[in-house]
Amino acid sequence: MTTMTAAAPGTDGRGGLTVAGGAVERIATQAITELDGVGGAASRVLGIAVGGEDLDQGAKVSAHVTGSTATLDVRLSVKYPLSVRATTETAREHLIRRVGELSGLTVARVDITVTALHSAETETRRVR
């Protein structure tokens, strides 16, 4: 687990703030749920999806923290017919802003992988 120190202990007797990478991952995962049309990604084993990809699940986020800078790797799904490009740009800007606000870190990079598109309509199959 990677940690960072946001403020070095000073001569005034105050301590420093340490933010763990796992905490940044949880903050980013929660921030993704604040967006409409963005959902979670299935867990993967050897690159193969295990379970379903669902808009109601949380996105998968990996964070790497170095000093006061964080980088995020996000796996999510997008609701069709939303623009993948516009949705990922909105998600990227939102993550940079929210993770920065809540953790005090500077988010230098957000890599986003879209793992699925979800139809707005639920298909029902009928037997004739």
3D architecture notes:
- This protein is 25% helix and 35% strand.
- It is α+β, with helices and mostly antiparallel strands.
- It has a single domain, classed as Cation efflux protein, cytoplasmic domain (Alpha-Beta Plaits).
- The strands form 3 sheets. Strands 3, 6, 7 and 8 form a 4-stranded mixed sheet that branches. Strands 1-2 form a two-stranded antiparallel ribbon.
- The longest helix has 20 residues, at 84-103.
- InterPro entries: Asp23 (IPR005531).
- Belongs to the asp23 family.
The second-level CATH architecture is 2-Layer Sandwich
| Helix content estimate | 25-40%
CATH H-level homologous superfamily name: Cation efflux protein, cytoplasmic domain
Cα(first) to Cα(last) distance is: 56 Å
Shape: elongated
Kindly identify the CATH topology. Answer: Alpha-Beta Plaits
Number of domains: 1
Quick check: average pLDDT?
Answer: 80
Report the sheet-strand fraction: 35-45%
Largest sheet: 4 strands, mixed
Protein name: Asp23/Gls24 family envelope stress response protein
Pfam families: Asp23
Family: Belongs to the asp23 family.
Organism: Amycolatopsis decaplanina DSM 44594
Structure summarized in a few sentences:
This protein is α+β, with helices and mostly antiparallel strands.
List the helices and strands and how they pair.
Elements: E1 3-5, E2 18-20, H1 21-32, E3 38-39, E4 43-45, E5 48-50, E6 60-66, E7 69-79, H2 84-103, E8 106-118
Parallel strand pairs: 7-8
Antiparallel strand pairs: 1-2, 3-7, 4-5, 6-7
Helix pairs in contact: 1-2
InterPro entries: Asp23
Organism: Amycolatopsis decaplanina DSM 44594
Family: Belongs to the asp23 family.
